[in-house]
Amino acid sequence: MDRKAIFITGGGSGIGRAVAIWFAARGWFIGIADISDSGMAETKSLLPPGSCSTHKLDVRDREAWDESLAAFAKASGGRIDVLFNNAGIGTGGMLHELDKDEIDTLIAINVTGVVYGAQAAYPHLKAAAPGSSLVNTASAAGLYGSGGLSLYSATKFAVRGFTEALDIEWRDDGIHVCSLMPSFIDTGILAGPANKKSNVSKRESVVRAGLEFTPVEVAAETVWNAVNGGTKVHNLVGKTAKSMAFAAKWMPGKLRERSRNLMKARAALE
């Protein structure tokens, strides 16, 4: 099998599903990884026959990573050109509102899962180099700390720093390392409340704050461009992400004040 292959975590929904559809339409073989059997089945139904394999994976399980990637490499004909390290959760809210389980789960999935994935994929990506890529999903919340999203921001800052470090570590191996930094993408991650103590959906908070949603297809196209000749370490998606990046560099005081106002607006919804 000569076609290129991409392994996508969180492939059962949202950005992961959109990336699977985008790459499959362009002839790639897709590895759909998720904890949701129904989500993977739905994504698979949207792809051309014979263009994918599915792999149930909890990204917090290091051994499961090795097993899933080995199974995907076998299904793809022995190659993995790209790991899209995308699985994550969007727990938010004030730090004092979060219980221990919410804290531990957020860090384990958003940080440890990304680290495990990169480590497990390294030998496969090195074998496919030059031209192979690791893409980690970070967030606009990793550009500047956001009030009411302190822990979520911290996890995305971790992904951002991890990406920058691996870009340096793996460059001589011919592996391109980069991040996807979206603002608000209208996917299932926004459907529920920010945390157990909230009764307002994250999507409603975004709408009432007057912030824009970026179509999920824009994120998919950005990933495509990143692994097909892209040179950026961080790839911004959406107007909010781009304006935050500018403000973080040139107007951090105004960005802090805006974050305070948004935090108060969210609190008023509760």
TrEMBL record:
Keyword Oxidoreductase: yes
Alphabetized Gene3D superfamilies for the sequence: NAD(P)-binding Rossmann-like Domain
Keywords, ordered alphabetically: Oxidoreductase
Entry annotated with the keyword Transit peptide: no
SUPFAM superfamilies reported for this sequence: NAD(P)-binding Rossmann-fold domains
Signal peptide bounds: none
Family according to the record: Belongs to the short-chain dehydrogenases/reductases (SDR) family.
Record protein name field: SDR family oxidoreductase
